[in-house]
């Protein structure tokens, strides 16, 4: 079984604006199923498609199975079957030898920036970049599946 161990942080907008960033990748993602115990997500990036099945979060850990699919099929699945969706730009930043994924949300989630780091264990030590602010790991309103149904602009 695949496991995802991930911590999430809000991003300080002022400090983020000063960061030298690589090119971002556009993500469109939608949910075929959003349930507190499991989600089925389809994602289309600039070049690829993915289908991901995630289990219920227990702390910072949950079961995750991800499969690459043709981008064209991902777009068809999103158009035909997604019950909710969102868009964002993702920046991949290497900081202190760890990969951070920073999502700058668009549409009804515009104004929200969230940074995620995947770890090998829940107690793994890592250094926080100065642009990482409040930790929101486990706060359900920040789950992408929830942002797709109750966006940031409606809080």
TrEMBL record:
<protein>
    <submittedName>
        <fullName>CYTH domain-containing protein</fullName>
    </submittedName>
</protein>
<dbReference type="InterPro" id="IPR023577">
    <property type="entry name" value="CYTH_domain"/>
</dbReference>
<feature type="domain" description="CYTH">
    <location>
        <begin position="2"/>
        <end position="149"/>
    </location>
</feature>
<dbReference type="InterPro" id="IPR033469">
    <property type="entry name" value="CYTH-like_dom_sf"/>
</dbReference>
<dbReference type="InterPro" id="IPR012042">
    <property type="entry name" value="NeuTTM/CthTTM-like"/>
</dbReference>
<feature type="active site" description="Proton acceptor">
    <location>
        <position position="31"/>
    </location>
</feature>
<dbReference type="Pfam" id="PF01928">
    <property type="entry name" value="CYTH"/>
</dbReference>
